[in-house]
Amino acid sequence: MSILESIHELKESRHAIILAHNYTEGPVQDVADFVGDSLELSRKAAACQAPVIVFCGVRFMAETAKILSPNSIVLHPAPDSGCLMADMVNAAAINAYRQKHPNTIVVAYINTTAETKTAVDICCTSGNAEKVIASIPADKSILFLPDGNLGRNIAAKLNRPMEFWPGCCPIHDGVTTETIHQAKLQHPDAEIIVHPECRPEVVAMADTALSTGGMLTHVKESGCSEFIIGTEAGILHRMRQENPQKQFYPLSPTPICHDMKKVTLESILSCLQNLEPRVELDEETIRLARRPIDAMLQI
Ligand code: 13P
Ligand code: SF4
User: Fold this and answer.
1) In 3-state terms, what secondary structure has residue 126?
2) CA–CA dist 133, 82 (Å, integer)
3) Which residues touch 148 (CB under 8 Å, ≥6 apart)?
4) Domain 175-250: homologous superfamily in CATH
5) What is the pLDDT of residues 30-57, one digit of tens each?
6) Cα(231) to centroid of ligand 2, in Å?
7) Is the separation of the CB atoms in 180 and 203 below 8 Å?
8) How far apart are CA 142 and CA 152, in angstroms?
9) pTM (global) more than 0.90
10) Which class in CATH covers the domain with range 86-168?
């Protein structure tokens, strides 16, 4: 039996659902029941009620699935795949900030650990950050964490002053204006799409800045037939699959998140065979971390 057949057979017998982020390896995306961005995956995890969820992505995403489906067994095939940005903040540091700024609303990008989420007021993803910030009354001060680039990009778009945590995604922060300039020279007719985790000066050079899910919708609907893609390379798999008649050009150097590549078909199969490794969070962490996620999902 092939590895794909074994995964499908075990998936059926375990009544499992496989969720995968848009940055995972192509074969992982192809075996998944649902592939999406952070917001789409959070919604799916909250709604699916599957007894077993195999989460293919980085650790904070698997934790979010566990928080939203606490009665499910959530399996994470790559338990050592963290998010470099998520590790740039923690609950103790937020609580210290709150002591000095007691009336500030703390908005956390979903790219944070469950422990960090216990200390914040509301979450957002790159797909809904503008809506979340716009929902906060204008007279309230906001601390946006941990992604200073995403925060600055939204603040500029909404003309809303905010405080920013000194964090970033090193993969997206590494995209420079020169990289975009070179890509433009090579593909002058292509539309430029970047992720809002890129620096504001990079976003300013792009035609649009979107979440990975937003990018996939946009390229499908756009009348343009060529695109320069300013985000992690894994997204190109679905873009090319769903739009075989269009051209997609990665940046050079191409942004790669190595943590997103740690899930393999072998590790998915092993998870389904052994029902391990699981995401385990204590009840109090789930209760406290769920509040800001629920606040976000209600918007
Ligand atoms: P999306 O929610 O846009 O998929 O982004 C997740 C992420 O980790 C970007 O680096
Ligand atoms: Fe985290 Fe950046 Fe990787 Fe996204 S691309 S998971 S923000 S390190």
Assistant:
1) coil
2) 26
3) 164, 165, 166, 167, 168
4) NadA-like (3.40.50.10800)
5) 999 999 999 899 889 889 889 999 999 9
6) 10
7) no
8) 12
9) yes
10) alpha beta
Q: Which CATH number fits domain 3-81+260-282: 1.10.10.10, 3.40.50.10800, 3.40.50.300, 1.10.287.110?
A: 3.40.50.10800
Ligand 2 centroid from CA 32, angstroms: 20
DSSP character string of 62-124:
HHHHHHHSTTSEEE-S-TT---TTGGG--HHHHHHHHHH-TT-EEEEES-S-HHHHTT-SEEE
The one-letter amino acid at 232: E
Mutate to test the pocket of ligand 1, among 23, 123, 256 (most ligand atoms within 8 A of CB): 23
Residue closest via CA to ligand 2's atom 6 equals 83
Per-domain boundaries in the chain:
3-81+260-282, 86-168, 175-250
Mutate to test the pocket of ligand 1, among 56, 63, 111, 257 (most ligand atoms within 8 A of CB): 111
Pocket test of ligand 2: the residue of 23, 61, 64, 171 to mutate, having most ligand atoms within 8 Å of its CB, is 171
Tell me the average pLDDT of the chain: 97
Q: Which atom of ligand 1 is nearest to the CA of 195?
A: 3
CA distance 61 to 35: 13
Ligand that lies nearest to the alpha carbon of residue 59, given by its number in the listed order? 2
Q: Which residue in the block uniquely carries the two structure tokens 């995209």?
A: 175
